[in-house]
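Supplementary Note 3. Input sequence used for the single-chain structure prediction.
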Amino acid sequence: MNMVDVIDVSKTYEQGKVLVHALAGVSLSVAKGEFTALAGPSGSGKTTLLNLIGGLDAPTQGRIILDSQEITGLSQSSLANLRLNKIGFVFQAYNIIPVLSARENVEYVMLMQGVPARERADRARAILDEVGLVNMHDRRPAELSGGQQQRVAVARAIVSQPSIVLADEPTANLDSQTGQELLEMMARMNQERKVTFIFSTHDRMVMDHARRIVRLKDGLVSDDHTK
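The predicted structure, written as discrete structure tokens, is reproduced below.
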């Protein structure tokens, strides 16, 4: 069964008086449990496609189906509910809240989901230990390295038990060893928790870990290879 179906999707932006065709009729399916990279140079359309799959933007034309639900044309409140309950996001810039501790950052999505306080705290502690942040639960982002902050972001994405995790250039701000450790951790979570992962990346290390690589060029799929 597919987690994602992208059907003849195009996305056009206006930049001043110029139309930019970020995607031009892309079709793609991702099965449940895949560990897939959307690869390509800057401007290829990979981040645009990831944002459309995550309901952060809407296609100019075409359809997107996520976990058997068509999300094209959903209201903003319905999309927000979908993102809260079905999608985990990991961003290049971490996007964790600086005034909150690691545990509080991880709890934040569960707080919005209405999970009881004791359960939130227990699940947050368990996932932080799982991502290698034992004894760092109460540290704020400024007290953590970049790699540790990204581990908090991954923990936050996973702890709400989403159907899919979308990761936009997750290793871009990390050194190679930290990036390698992060990818191994996410691969383990994919195997153990059966969560679908889709990355956008131009990092060879991410592509080496991915089991499927979808290459984009000029808004089109140029290659689709499963290892």
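The chain has one domain: 34-57+79-226. The longest strand covers residues 2-15.
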